[in-house]
Amino acid sequence: MGHLSTHVLDTAHGCPAAGMQVTLQRMHADGRAETVKRFTLNHDGRSDGGPLLDAAAMAAGRWRLLFEVAAYFRARGVALPEPPFIDVVQLDFGIADAAGHYHVPLLVSPFSYSTYRGS
User: Fold this and answer.
1) Which terminus of the chain is more solvent-facing, meaning fewer CB atoms within 10 Å of its CB: N or C?
2) Beta strands in the chain (DSSP E)
3) Looking at residue 86, what is its pLDDT?
4) How many separate domains does the chain show?
5) What percent of the chain has pLDDT over 90?
6) What is the 3-state secondary structure (H, E, C) of 21-48?
7) What is the CB neighbour count within 10 angstroms for residue 53?
8) Predicted TM-score of the model (pTM)
9) What is d(CA 1, CA 115) in angstroms, rounded to the nearest whole number?
10) How many CB atoms lie within 10 A of CB 69?
11) Which domain holds residue 102?
């Protein structure tokens, strides 16, 4: 039974990115982005309430996560230039197997980020 999850770590402060706003979108063949869920990361840098997509909602196709990085760091009191070097991290990814487990972690600072398909 497949599901989608994410986890964000603030590498500048060495902690989970609690309070960061994230949007999950489904990308359609015509290029249209449909917002499926918008949420705030909890104390552990994860979405409350379990997976972003559970087995019933999982679907093969193209998806997008939008991580509001600059707003998060500004809320933490970090002085950022205008415009910030990284504002919103837009991460486009594909789900090929709706029965699979897709974990999309993000490691982020005001000046860099990395991601991978986690377990």
Assistant:
1) C
2) 3-10, 15-16, 21-27, 33-40, 61-68, 88-95, 101-109, 112-115
3) 98
4) 1
5) 95
6) EEEEEEECCCCCEEEEEEEEECCCCCEC
7) 21
8) 0.96
9) 23
10) 25
11) 3-110
